[in-house]
Specification:
- This protein is an alpha/beta fold and 320 residues long.
- The protein is 38% helix and 16% strand.
- Strands 1-2-4-3-5-6-7-8 form an 8-stranded mixed β-sheet, with helices on both faces.
- Helix 5 links the parallel strand 5 and strand 6.
- The longest helix has 21 residues.
Length: 320
């Protein structure tokens, strides 16, 4: 049985996964098989490898379009990386992933440069503070502060008040938290859209995360526990400001939820999409057979398809 959005059991069948996706997943598992577990090393070691281009993601590409700026925040200036195309019809707040512990704003330059040009949006990528050096609520506070600044200044800075927010993994989580904070703390309900990509919305662990186990297809259950431990104490994890799946989700903007069927936190997107719609909001759910966590960053067909759909969604939001 398939619902009106095309979601159904056919997406989860083994034969729905293309040979290209299957082969790429096997390559990832082979690469990761002999890599040390995240929990076995200080986070800074993993960060340094990424900066040196020695991680599974390969060398960094730094865009000549990117401009380093900063935005006032409660704990001091928050660095942002800004991409401004020739024509601007909207603004996209990008929040990077990395389990609140890894990742930087400059790690997705190629994708953000492409998005800026194809969607005619000024992209503002938040270089929020990372755990464990800066645990909750530091990262969410930085994202909230940048979003508030943009709501107040986007028209003057970029010529448009049409703001879309989004990001992948921890960036999807922080995007949802930021939407809720701006609604509840600042009375702002004017976001044009939310591009939520395989976000983690329940830090008490959804069934897919609990059951995934040790399969080293990007992120194991042990990795998920380690990320949570860096970010926030266990006793805080059912707080809606930490796990937005538990929040009252009324008055949220139209959202696109993107996830692959072989993502260890698949259920987070499935559950959040359902609660988003049940709260009276518009949403789309895009599920990609065989997609692993982070699949949209890899050179495979489903990544190109997913990014094209995200771009179409963002354009529709800012051009409405």
């Amino acid at each position: 049985m398939t619902d009106a959005s095309g979601f159904g059991p056919h997406l989860f069948r083994e034969d729905a996964i293309s040979e290209e996706t299957r082969a790429f997943n096997h390559q990832i598992e082979q690469l990761m098989r002999d890599m040390p577990a995240l929990s076995s090393r200080p986070p800074q070691v993993t960060r340094d490898e990424r900066e040196a281009g020695a991680s599974v993601f390969g060398p960094l590409h730094l865009s000549p379009m990117a401009v380093e700026r900063s935005v006032p925040g409660r704990a001091g200036a928050v660095p942002v990386r800004v991409f401004v195309p020739e024509s601007v019809v909207g603004v996209y707040i990008h929040i990077h992933g990395g389990g609140w512990t890894l990742g930087r704003a400059h790690h997705q330059d190629a994708r953000l440069e492409q998005m800026a040009g194809d969607c005619n949006v000024a992209v503002v990528s938040v270089d929020y503070r990372l755990a464990p050096e800066h645990p909750y609520p530091a990262g969410p506070d930085d994202c909230e502060d940048v979003a508030v600044w943009l709501v107040e200044n986007a028209k003057r800075e970029f010529g448009s008040e049409r703001i879309v927010i989004g990001g992948g993994s921890a960036g999807g989580h922080l995007s949802a938290v930021t939407l809720l904070r701006l609604r509840d703390r600042h009375g702002y309900r004017g976001f044009a859209g939310a591009n939520l990509v395989y976000g983690c919305y329940d830090l008490t662990l959804t069934p897919s995360a609990r059951r995934w186990g040790d399969r080293r297809l990007v992120m194991t259950t042990s990795d998920i526990h380690w990320f949570f431990d860096q970010f926030v104490p266990a006793e805080r994890r059912s707080d809606p400001d930490v796990s937005p799946l538990y929040a009252d989700l009324h008055s949220m903007p139209p959202a696109l939820f993107t996830v692959g069927t072989l993502d260890s936190i698949l259920d987070d997107s499935l559950f959040m999409y359902t609660r988003w719609v049940a709260a009276g909001n518009r949403a789309e759910l895009a599920v990609y057979p065989g997609g692993a966590h982070g699949f949209d960053n890899f050179p495979i067909t489903i990544a190109r398809e997913a990014n094209a759909r995200m771009d179409a969604f963002i354009r529709a939001c800012v051009e409405a």
